Amino acid sequence: MANALRDVAIVGVAESDIGRVPDKSKFRLSAEASRMALEDAGLSVGDVDGLFTTIITEGGQFSSMLMAEYMGITPRYTDSTSIGGSSFVVYVEHAAMAIAAGLCDVALICHGSTNISDRGGRGGPVSQSTEVFGPTQFEEPYGVSTVGAYALAAQRHMHEYGTTLEQLAEIAVATRKWASLNPKARMRDPITIDDVMNSRVIASPLHLLDCCLVTDAGGAVVLTSLERARDLKKAPVRVLGAGEAHSHRMISQMPDLTQTTAAISGKLAFERAGLTHSDIDVAEIYDSFTITVLLSLESLGFCAKGEGGAFVSNQRTAPGGEFPMNTQGGALSYTHPGMFGIFTIIEAVRQVRGECGPRQVPGAEVALCNGTGGTLSSTGTIILGRD
Amino acid sequence: MAAPLPPPLPRPYQDTAAYWQAAREHRFIVQKCADCAEFQFYPRGVCSHCLSSALEWEEASGRGEVYSFSINYRAPHPGFADKTPFVLALVTLAEGPRMMTNIVDCDPDTVRIGMVVTVTFDDVTEDVTLPKFRPL
Predict the structure, then answer these.
(1) Would you call B7 an interface residue with chain A, using a CB distance cutoff of 8 Å?
(2) Mutate to test the interface with B, among A127, A128, A130 (most CBs of B within 10 A)
(3) What is the mean pLDDT of chain B?
(4) Which domains does chain A have, with CATH numbers?
(5) Pairing of strands A378-386, A366-373
(6) Interface pTM, i.e. ipTM
(7) What range does the domain containing B114 cover?
(8) pLDDT digits (tens, 9 = 90+) for A80-101
(9) The model's pTM
(10) A174-207 burial by CB neighbour count: b if 16+ within 10 A, else e?
(11) What is d(CA A272, CA A290) in angstroms, rounded to the nearest whole number?
């Protein structure tokens, strides 16, 4: 398995127009990102024979059939695994396996969402249903929301380990510094720890600036065999290791609010890559909320459980810090169309290629991406490296 | 503006009808597996510990402890617009399983992790009653 994954490479990445894009549908954003990622690879849509996508909002049912039809693709390998924002990271593992097994040659992973335009603003209602069928009827009538669910985890982590609001704010401040170096980032003005702590409380203990943005955006990633990749436009970025896992659907069923399945998916990714934490030059950690980053870093084993707060202190993850993280500005400051996973991959590939200009991490050869989906429910971890 | 939407309410189904019916009668029941003796929440058609279908309903103590909570200032749904701030909570029941609920009948700022709570019934409509919890 480990060797098979290593014979596959990412050869193209792109994001669509991002931010507030009211005149373009989510299908178009996904398709335009796909076109640009194929151009980045030097491939054409006719080369694509594997498709990986999911849409979890209105009109997105049967996602891979829908998007294949929209773009005129007839895939012989298809995957609509739907485990939230981590899905796109997990697709890298699935695509690598499919390519290594000869089930497809060129895999396209794509995503598009018009989350901000659909909601009419960041504070717009997430749901308008009046009746709840299925297990979520044991959560929705009590007013659960994504931020509310993640707030429960933050409160518990603070209770068990003494994690502070200042420590959570360190993440938001460092991420904004990276965003200020990225012209595509939505929020680029510097913020301070006090700004985060003085922003209004959305769901205690989480403040507004502990929460990701809500935007429109599309993204796409193209993979093929390492052999073919070496003949393409840009230097291949190899898939060195990957892992996936999920533990629950609803936050009330999460076995331990302070640990995600990154403890499983991360361990698998490191084992399969034959690498250790000190080999990682840059980390792209899905930051739906500041607490997501803290739990992910601990669960991935970058620090011990409970020590995430100390780990991120003193702007350790900021530009120039010891642990460069979320270098495009993250979901907190760059973009967040509801599912962010694909954007961690796009940035990791650009970092490993050395394309990042003022935000380039010098000498970045190995990158780790960790996607989290649902309400801390699922994770996908991949490790990418220079050929 | 149209009339505000009511908050989302459960539509009972095969697995959950008995639970919601009991709640209407102000009884709080949980499932116990006749094969492995484990309790579970939420109600399912099989045991989530051993996959047995031999599930029995037990009258629960209604006692629990706050495992975590969050004071919510933003309505996730128009039906909560006049209910903020409210306390979203996870309560570990005396029987073992954990459930989502609201902590009510107290100042939100006094809620703490580890607080001992007891069930109370909120008759939201004629047909639907939600078990909630208050400090003991």
Answers:
(1) yes
(2) A130
(3) 96
(4) 2-119+212-386 (3.40.47.10)
(5) antiparallel
(6) 0.97
(7) 17-135
(8) 999 999 999 999 999 999 999 9
(9) 0.96
(10) bbbbbbbbbeebbbbeebebebbbebebbbbbbb
(11) 28
